[in-house]
Amino acid sequence: MASKFDSNPVDYSVWSILQETVYKTRITYLEDVKHRIRAEWTKLDHAVKAAAVRQWRRRLSACVRAAMVISNTAFNSDIVFLQ
């Protein structure tokens, strides 16, 4: 299990794919970035998006479990370990 829990909804592999195309040419305005990200997102393969969602769900579950452990530990003298 990772030592740091990350609930960031953007999977880094997805962002790296988007970055390759979004930043191919110079960007002058924030609206350009927004437009490019949206345009590239629609072109992104569904399988890549689905894998990112599955990964995010796993990270979110780990955050919830960790919060439960912290909460349990705060109220009990016993330390709870996750498997």
What are the key terms here?
single chain; 83 residues; mainly alpha; 3 helices; 0% strand; elongated
Structure description:
The protein is mainly alpha-helical and 83 residues long. It has one domain. It is built from three helices and no strands. The model has no long low-confidence stretch (mean pLDDT 76).
Q: Mean pLDDT, as a whole number?
A: 76
Sheet having the most strands: none
What is the first-to-last residue Cα distance?
8 Å
- Percent helix: 55-70%
Radius of gyration: 18 Å
Shape: elongated
Question: Strand-residue fraction?
Answer: under 5%
Structural class: mainly alpha
Return the domain count: 1
Question: Low-confidence parts, pLDDT < 50 over ≥5 residues?
Answer: none
How many beta-strand elements?
0
Individual helix count: 3
- N-to-C order of helices and strands: HHH
Concise structural overview:
The chain is mainly α and about 80 residues long. About 65% of the residues lie in helices and about 0% in strands.
Chain-wise SSE layout:
Blueprint: H1 12-22, H2 30-43, H3 46-75
Helix pairs in contact: 1-2
